[in-house]
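EI: anyone free to look at a 40-residue chain?
SC: sure, send it
EI:
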Amino acid sequence: MRDWFSPLFFLFARTDEELLRRQILFLKAELEMTLKRVRK
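SC: here you go
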């Protein structure tokens, strides 16, 4: 988990608020799609 968390945290730390909101929405949608695939 630590391998992907650090770069992701760094990316969030250097973005502005609007970009951060868009990234969170994208990650949320991506997670939902992944969960749908795993549950099949």
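EI: The chain has a mean pLDDT of 82.
SC: 👍
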